[in-house]
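for the writeup, i need someone to sanity check this before i put it in the appendix. the sequnce is what the collaborator sent (i think, or maybe the updated version? ugh). structure was predicted straight from it, no edits. if anything looks off just tell me and ill rerun, i have time this weekend
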Amino acid sequence: MATMGPPPPQTESATSRSSRLWPLAVVAVVAMILATVVIFKCANTPKELMQEGRELVKDGMNALAEAFKTDVHYTTVITGAISSLKNNPKLVVLTAEIDAVVKRSASTEKLWIYWGTTTVEMRTKGNKVQFYIPLDDIGTHSFRYDSVHKTLTILTHPPMLDEDFVDVQSDPSKIEMLTSNGWAKFDKWSGAPMREDARRELRGEVLRSAKHPAQHELLMSKAKTNAKEHLKRLLEPSFAESLNPETKIEIEFLP
């Protein structure tokens, strides 16, 4: 009898292989399509955004151009006005005089003995502070035209207290100094040092007085009124021959 060997290995049919490969092919094709779409979008989005930005700027400038005479290149006029304003990076709109009072007192008690209290009170008149408008960020975005009311509005920051400039009074005739030394204290070691301290504190006291709510509100009201007048005087020469005669110039403060 002939012996039978092991059965020959069975080979995988072509139909079985293709049934497992076609889903992978579909996934690969879909991934390629998605990648192509993403790359295309990423490549075109900045261009679209830039185009939209250019159109917005163009529309804004066209609207602004309505305020100017047809024979004047309005962008040149506005650029000149901006340059004129920026020559005054700090446009001072108000210089105000502030009265200030500085008080100092010190008590001494040693060896269970009270040596008295020394007090110093310095009253000054004619200290000066300034309010200004920062103009360094003025640009084309600061100009707005209302075609209905024929008004060209310039947007700017409201006045600010200039803390870098404080002119403290140095005229002795406008400084009143009251000193009361303790019963057991000498002026040389008690009153005199406190008067020097009061003089050093005068600048800070002037600023605190200018920032006091009631005082500050009054000064700000004056500063805003002056600011509008100052800005109009600065701008009118630049716009005198360029603006449409019906156009009014207004100043509006940003929040």
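Confidence is low (pLDDT under 50) at residues 1-6, 9-15. The CA atoms of residues 89 and 136 lie 5 Å apart.
thx in advance!!
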